[in-house]
Amino acid sequence: MRRPIGEITRGTTGRNRLRRADRWIAAVHGRLLRSADRPLVVDLGYGASHTTTLELFLRLRRVCPSVEVVGIEIDPARVAAAKPYERPGLSFALGGFELPVGRPPLLVRAFNVLRQYGEAEAWDYWAMLRGRIARDGVIVEGTCSEVGHRAVWAGLDASGPRTLTFSARFDAFDRPSDLADRLPKTLIHRNVPGEPVHAFLRDFDHAWAVNAPLAAYGSRQRWMAAVRTLSGTWPVAAHPPLGGRSRWRLGEVTLPWAAVAPGPVGRSG
User: Fold this and answer.
1) Domains by residue range for the chain, with CATH
2) What is the maximum span of the chain, computed from C-alpha positions, in angstroms?
3) pTM of the prediction?
C-alpha cells in the first residue's frame, strides 16, 4: 500500500464537537443522500477518537437509513482504536486525501484537517478531493472550536467551492467577527482590508451593533435581526434549506462562495 497522502493532525476531538455541521449536512444534503441507492459518506481525518464519525453515522441514518459511512485516518493507531466500534454501515480505514474507498463518495466531511497546511496546499487538497467524489457529490470542509461552539465551513462540489457557512452558539462570541479564527484555510489569511470576507465580517459586526437593542429579547433575536440587516447588501441565503428563519435561528448564516471568494491574488476554485 502506498503511503497515505497528508500529514497526521493533532487528533483533537470530542463528543458533539461537530454537531452543528452534522445538523446542517442532514438538512441541506439529506435529499441528495436519499437519491442514491447506497450513498457513501467519508469522514476524513476523524482524529484520535471514533466518536464524531459514529455521531455522523447515527445522525445521517435518521434522514437516510441506507447511508454508509467510512471514517478515514492517516494514523494506523487511530484506525486500530476505532475498529472495535464498527457496525453494519460504519467502518474505519487507513488513508488520507486520496480517499481509499471502493467507490466515489457522495459526501465527504473534512473538519480541522487543513489547519496545518499553507493556503496553496489547502487549495490543492480541495482540488484533489473534488476529483475523487461522485459526479454529483459534495464536500463539507471547515474548522470548529475545541468544543464546537464556533464553526465555519465551505460547501464544495466537483466544480469548486459553492457556499460558506458561519455557525455559532449564541453565548460563544461577543461579535460575529470572532468567528474569523475558524475560517477555512483558503480564506483565513484573507481576512484583511480589501478582501470580500473581511468586508462581510465588518458589515456583520455593524449589523450586530445596530441591532443591539434586541438583545433584551435574547441573542437569537438579535442574530436573526442582524442577518436580515445584512441581507440588504449581502446575498445571505434567505430560503430553506440553506437559509431563512429556520437556519438563522440556529445561529447560522450561509452565503454563496462567490460573494466572499479571494481577490485577484487569491484563487476562486
Assistant:
1) 1-184 (3.40.50.150), 190-253 (no CATH)
2) 60
3) 0.95
